[in-house]
Fold:
Amino acid sequence: MKIRFLYALILLSGLAAAQSGDLRLPITLAADSTDYDGKSSMMMFQGLRLSQGTTNIEADEGRATKIDFEDSTWHFNGNVVIDVEAGHIESDSAELRFKDTQLRLAIFEGAPATFELQRPDSEEITYAQAGKLKYDLDAGTVEFSDQAVITEGGNRISSSYLLYNITEQRISAQSSGEGDEKVKITVIPETIEEQVPSEDESS
Structure:
C-alpha cells in the first residue's frame, strides 16, 4: 500500500519555493497604478501582474520593500493567483520573504487557499487546501492550519492541523478536539498490476 501524502508535501515545499532557479532572471511587472510610501519605504501596486521565468503572480493589490527577489518582502492581497512550472496557487493573501535570492518564508491565507501540483513522473494532480499554509525555510517546516485537506489519486488526508518537517520528512496531524473534527485518512489500495512487477522490471 503506497501513501503519497509525504511526496505531496515535499512537492508543496518545492512549490512554495517559487522555483528558486528563476529568482535571478529578469522581472516583468505591470500594474494599473503604482505609488510609493516614503514613511514605510513601501512600493504599492493596484492590479498587479508580475512574472519572472516560469513564475507568474497576479493580485488586486501588492506591496513590496524592493522590486526584486534578492532581499525583499512582498505582500499580495485580493484574488492572489500564483503559477509556477509545477503548480498553481489561489489565495486571498500571500506574504513572501526573500533573502540572498532565496525564499525564506511564504504564508498563504484564504477561505480556503488552494494548491494544485503535478509530479514530474505522473499525470495525477495533487490537490491541497487550507485556511493557512506557512512555509518556513529556517524552521524546515510546511504548516497547514484551519481545515487542511490533501488529495491525490483518491487518497485523502484531512485535519485541522498538519505539520510537515522537511528535514526529517515527517508528518504530524492533529484534530482540533471540537465535535467530530478528527484526523481522517482515506487510502486507495494499489491494483494487482501495480503491485506485481512486469517482466521487463523483473528481468
Observations:
- The chain has one domain: 5-202.
- The domain at 5-202 is CATH 2.60.450.10 (lipopolysaccharide transport protein A fold).
